[in-house]
Specification:
This is RelA/SpoT domain-containing protein. The chain is an alpha+beta fold. The protein has nine helices and ten strands.
């Protein structure tokens, strides 16, 4: 086993020799993840996934991790840059943030699908959501091996988190308690961190339930045929005050708000399959619409699409 001074020299050399390759790999992964995001969320709200930048692990953190490993395993020898990268496979890191656990599961599955990976190779994966780490940390991790034209392939870690799982790290100052960091967690810190993690996990689950409910609310089955609505001529004038891929919000002259669901726009457009409402309905558009109301909500069903 090398002493700490020798180990530090090896780590410093690795960062000199490989930093450009690591940075290039990180950019390549971010581009690939962005394409994955577009493919997974085709015709959906692309903000459900967010490729949130990349980082190269600080050399001091890498040294601390290697020191810990060599102390735990006296037979482990670190003599080269290749050894540094093989023992610390998360020097290159990229984070994907998701709106809810269902999107996290979707992204995590894609990262383990050989048909999606292309030239990248899946090395290992860990699901820290069920069960979470003892600290309360929740995330999904994937280690990929990325081909490089600047020498050997690069290992990279992709962390897939919900926004609340990521917020937990900030709220608990988790970064301050990692190996090689300044602080050691106290009993109080641990208890509070776990309690916060459990509360945020509950909110995540509630967000998933709400998302499913919202999908059902914004895609109701049409009750009356369009021609019949036009013949009845019971429409009112409404103004669009917000619009998105799945639905628009409109307000009538008395200030009542209603949803304009995707099925109503798809029916008027004549298109089949999934459509984006905001491709057809824009902010401040004025529409003639019939009114449908049930126990779940108030809907404005346009009788014609606006002319743009």
């Amino acid at each position: 086993m090398r002493n700490e001074s020798q180990l530090k020299t090896i780590v410093e050399r690795a960062y000199v020799e490989r930093l450009n390759a690591w940075q290039t790999a990180a950019v390549r992964i971010k581009h690939w993840l962005t394409e994955q995001q577009k493919g997974l969320l085709k015709d959906k709200d692309i903000s459900r996934l967010d490729v949130d930048g990349h980082r190269i692990k600080d050399a001091a953190r890498t040294l601390a991790k290697l020191t810990e490993k060599t102390e735990d395993d006296p037979d482990l020898t670190i003599t080269s840059t290749e050894d540094v990268e093989d023992q610390v496979r998360d020097i290159v890191g990229v984070k994907v943030l998701c709106k809810s656990p269902r999107d996290q599961s979707m992204m995590f599955a894609a990262l383990r699908d050989p048909d999606q990976l292309g030239a990248f190779e899946l090395i290992e994966w860990k699901d820290y959501t069920d069960p979470p780490k003892a600290s309360g940390y929740r995330a999904c991790h994937v280690i990929l091996r990325i081909p490089s034209d600047q020498g050997p392939p690069v290992f990279a870690e992709i962390q897939v988190k919900t926004r609340l799982q990521d917020a937990w790290s900030e709220l608990t100052h988790e970064d301050m308690y990692k190996p090689g960091a300044a602080m050691k967690p106290s009993k109080l810190h641990g208890e509070f961190a776990r309690a916060m993690a459990n509360m945020l996990a509950t909110v995540d689950d509630m967000a998933d339930t709400l998302a499913v409910e919202l999908t059902a609310l914004t895609n109701p089955e049409p009750v009356v045929e369009l021609d019949e609505l036009r013949e009845q001529d019971t429409g009112i004038d409404v103004r669009v005050r917000a619009t998105g891929p799945k639905y628009a919000l409109a307000v009538d002259g008395s200030g009542r708000q209603g949803l304009i669901p995707a099925f109503a726009i798809r029916r008027l457009s004549g298109q089949k399959g999934t459509i984006k409402v905001n491709d057809f309905i824009h902010l401040d558009d004025r529409l003639r619409a019939s009114v449908e109301e049930d126990s779940k909500g108030l809907y404005y069903i346009p009788l014609e699409l606006p002319e743009h």
